[in-house]
């Protein structure tokens, strides 16, 4: 499977680059991530639970980063095993460029799946991969610029904003 896309992130390239190297940010942004630990130098270990079509599995895997060019580019390579569900492995080249609204993030992904996952067919796998990528970047945008995402149903982080939302709904002050 191959996939390429571009996403606009409302943060400068240095902020986006740093976020992509932080395990806590990755755990918050990767859909289904239960644990992400490690460092950019040594690589990350991740545990992710996902349901692809009728197959639900917990994948444990390794992610390594290479070709790191600060604020500009990085290459991600990873491999995960999901027991009877199969495996997934692949990589992505991510490039960052300044834009009028922050950062234009471009990525080229190449991935392979095996086991029960491969039996689902490329149409399901490709659709799932696109959905996962879109969700990751939506989560990254929300993490880096939460005030712009609060209108999309995200829970506000401060008690005052929650009270304001609640009072609007109930009419109570």
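^ Assign residues to that structure.
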């Amino acid at each position: 499977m191959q996939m390429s896309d571009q996403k606009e992130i409302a943060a400068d390239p240095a902020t986006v680059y740093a976020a992509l190297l932080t395990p806590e940010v990755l755990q918050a942004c990767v859909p289904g991530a239960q644990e992400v630990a490690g460092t950019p130098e040594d690589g990350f270990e991740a545990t992710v639970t996902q349901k692809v079509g009728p197959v639900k599995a917990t994948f444990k895997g390794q992610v390594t980063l290479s070709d790191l060019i600060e604020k500009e580019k990085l290459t991600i390579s990873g491999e995960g095993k999901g027991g009877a569900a199969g495996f997934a492995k692949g990589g992505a080249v991510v490039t960052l460029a300044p834009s009028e609204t922050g950062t234009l993030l471009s990525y080229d992904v190449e991935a392979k799946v095996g086991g029960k996952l491969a039996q689902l067919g490329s149409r399901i796998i490709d659709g799932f991969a696109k959905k996962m990528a879109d969700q990751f970047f939506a989560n990254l945008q929300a993490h880096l610029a939460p005030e712009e995402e609060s209108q999309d149903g995200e829970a506000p982080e401060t008690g005052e904003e929650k009270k304001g939302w609640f009072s609007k709904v109930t009419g109570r002050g």
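The chain is about 35% helix and 45% strand.
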